[in-house]
């Protein structure tokens, strides 16, 4: 079982670094297929995201500048939302969490399909209140379904705030630090955290994150958008299959 968990960590870490996601969107379906319950998978995913998001954002900070202001504001909102999620999570049946996850995937695929692969539009500073509100509600949704928030935040950053796709994914991973820590604290307080499994997968993800970011830097914008869409389609198919069957 430990070897399987390490493998999950490597795969999840790579996708986290490459796509700028917390990793829950790929880890949760794998855990479900390995016969973990939805709430167990959510808890493990949250702990893994703490590992991958901190290390991945450290690596990204060496290459991308100027995202600290928006990232911190979004992150503060996400921390508040993530902390709130621990109150709602035990009250919601597993099947409804899976339906919510599917809805988030459909929304992301639709909006990213319409968005350009890259953008040269000059970004203006956004309202602090708008960023806080976005971070808060994305944080609640993300931690309730065990994802870092990038899955939902990414199309907002690209379509509404007009970030370049690669920069948006780096900011999305930075955002995951706040939402995952808030969710980790909240889930631990309510006694739902699986520390052993989460730590094994989290440590494995550190290696995957490093290589994911390196390959992302060498990938052209058009190809990168295609990969992002394919990932979301794959996760959608697996999740629907597990929910129906």
From TrEMBL:
Keywords: Cell membrane, Membrane, Transmembrane, Transmembrane helix. The chain crosses the membrane at residues 6-34, 41-59, 71-89, 96-113, 133-160, 167-187, 193-213, 225-244. It is found in: Cell membrane; Membrane. The keyword Cell membrane applies. Pfam families: TauE. InterPro entries: TM_pro_TauE-like, TSUP/Inactive_protease-like. One of its GO terms (cellular component) is plasma membrane. Belongs to the 4-toluene sulfonate uptake permease (TSUP) (TC 2.A.102) family. This is Probable membrane transporter protein. It comes from Aliarcobacter vitoriensis.
